[in-house]
Amino acid sequence: MVQEQAQQKLSIQFEDIAQQNESYIVGMWTFLVTEIMFFGGLFATYLVYRVANQEVFWEAHRHLSIPLGFFNTCVLLTSSLTMALTVHYSQRGLRKQQLLWLLVTMALACTFLVVKGFEYHHKFVEGLIPGANFRFEPAEHMRVAQLFFSLYFAMTGLHALHVIIGVLVMTILAVLIAIKHPSVQDFIPIELTGLYWHFVDIVWIFLFPLLYLIPR
Amino acid sequence: MSVAVAKHGEVKHNYLNAGDTVLSWLLTTDHKRIAVLYLVSVTLFFAVGGLLALLIRLELLTPQGDLMTSENYNRVFTMHGVVMIFLFLIPAIPAVLGNFLVPLMVGARDLAFPRLNLASWYVYMAGGLIATWAMVNGGVDTGWTFYPPYSSSYSTSQVTLTIIGAFLIGFSSIFTGINFIVTIHKMRAPGLTWFRLPLFIWAHYATSVIIVLGTPVVAITLLLVAVERVFRLGIFDPALGGDPILFQHLFWFYSHPAVYIMILPAMGVISEVVACFSRKRVFGYHFVAFSSVAIAVIGFLVWGHHMFTTGQSVYAGMVFSLLSFLVAVPSAVKVFNWTATMYKGHIEFRAPMLYVMGFLGLFVIGGLTGLFLASLATDIHLQDTYFVVAHFHYIMVGGTIFGYLAGLHFWWPKMTGRMYPEGIAKLAALIIFAGFNLTFLPQFVLGYLGMPRRYHWYPEEWQMLHVMSSAGAALLGIGYILPVFYLLWSLRNGALAGPNPWGATGLEWKTDSPPITHNFEETPIVTEEPYAYENHHQQEEVASGTGASTAEA
Ligand code: HEM
Ligand SMILES: [Cu+2]
Question: Is residue B2 part of a domain?
């Protein structure tokens, strides 16, 4: 049993397990570089408009809830810790602990999404969803405020999409681990998911101050 | 299907006869079969783009707009650009030749992620089909550059669908790029150090870096255009509070490097072919290798040369102009080195070599005219004229497509096990060269005289030049059709190639043609530098005399 757990499946194109594992990890890092550039385009757009409209962006950002944003920041940071624990236990082949911390990570991710959902709902009630029903006082700032909220929804929406994908992947992994599926006998799937998850957290670490903590 | 037959008549196993059901192709993870899938698809899209080009040239035969309305003309040139750039030029060399050759050249059994590789083809096809669907359902008329606010607020054509198509195609190249980077880093055969890698691999490595860094930016940018269009969010449209110049910055941040995505792989092909048919090692190997990297890096710093006249500050313009001159240096380094490689070589004028020589001449013209355009004062006169059109066609058609055809002929024996017919292949190369120059040389003159791009009517006095250009396009069309026929013909009737018909160096020539499914009977071990043509040459001479001292790899 223990022996079986240590055994990894070697794909035909690789010479040995070490090469296979390194390839997967380099591949994941490369993918994360594309993700950084993907968000980078959006961040650049945001920064250009913020520099040009500091005043109105400041006004608009007061409609965001700093407590909720701060709470979510803590949630995600904690989830990074629990994800690190998951990876740690999976490297040691301790299935129960691994599963436990994976589930905790998922719970935290879902908490984040629920809070985000409440925030979006508030914006909806306040008429801050860009489009025909957008309302903003004072009216002469409406256009730029709408730009702020367009970017707010685009950036946090894309981030939330990444969180959702993370939750889906973790769900699949959790099921596979629970049924002792051979494909998750080694630590690579969890390791890769961990890298992805830390990336998602880091994006939020930039989003929170940029959107919620605009100085006057 | 072509099947290599061993001497005593029994059929050898290879990747082509490893399975012949349709499913065995659609579900394959063999990089060589995926390359063939890509070969068929990019050829089809090339045909579509080519037909659209012929329509453009037909319309421009006469000064009046008599074949189609202005609106339809806009659609035709836009779709020509979209198909050629996103569906043909960007994937052509990496996804066909690169896919086939990268694992072979590094001595691996496959790419690092074979399933991701197959996924990239499916994503490419999905993007291609969506773009095609957009074309038949009204088309797009924004130009391949999708400039807002026209694209986001005014155009009534299928902008959103086309953008979704381009977005998907972008992700298919990202998949390919990730695969190449990991494979080149982690899967090189024993002894294959970085400086023993063929320059084709260096070129593909640099290309992959650009793909991975640049494509996501254009993906998010185009997505924002689509979002602005669908939800009326003001991101780029000034009427909604946005800034169209920002779009141009983001777009060209990718799309200038994208031109190097198109040309660098071709440069990789040139290095291989020029060394083989000059029987010499590539002059200044390290310079050629690092110039690829330099192009990848500097290429990211010059995007502003597309915006000299569109509202960028004069000082930014000066800096971008200077940097654009800088990026020409590594390109020139390559040209000098290839020329020096041929110097005193034993040059064989095979069809691939003819394409290489065509490439050298045309790329130099394309690159030098790029410098005209990168000079602030001249660009004000030449921006948005046929001069620009001629410039980029010299590089993309004269450079990339020549490189692609050189590579396709050079590795055709490896891919199929059969030789292409040399005589007619040389003839086609000459027709393409003549047709190409007849098409695009007059366009430099037209642009200099002031003919703007993207118009379908013009003053009478320019008709002669336009007629020349259209005649050239017809000739070019013939030149492109020929290879389709003789290459298909060669699948059954070509002479058997054997493992190494050119006497070339490189691991891909050390295995069967066509190779077996996992490329090598046993993992090769590399003991010498690349392009050791002279060693082998001496060896042959020495072997007949005193006996070889250096060991064969
Ligand atoms: C020697 C390096 C090069 C320089 C200095 C250069 C310079 C330029 C400049 C300044 C322009 C803008 C002209 C204008 O719009 O007024 C331009 C346009 C263009 N270049 Fe180059 N170029 C170089 C290489 C390439 C390469 C290698 C390719 C393609 C493989 C390429 C493809 C294009 C294309 C497609 C356009 C037109 C874009 C459009 O639709 O507006 N260039 N080039
Ligand atoms: Cu450019």
Answer: no
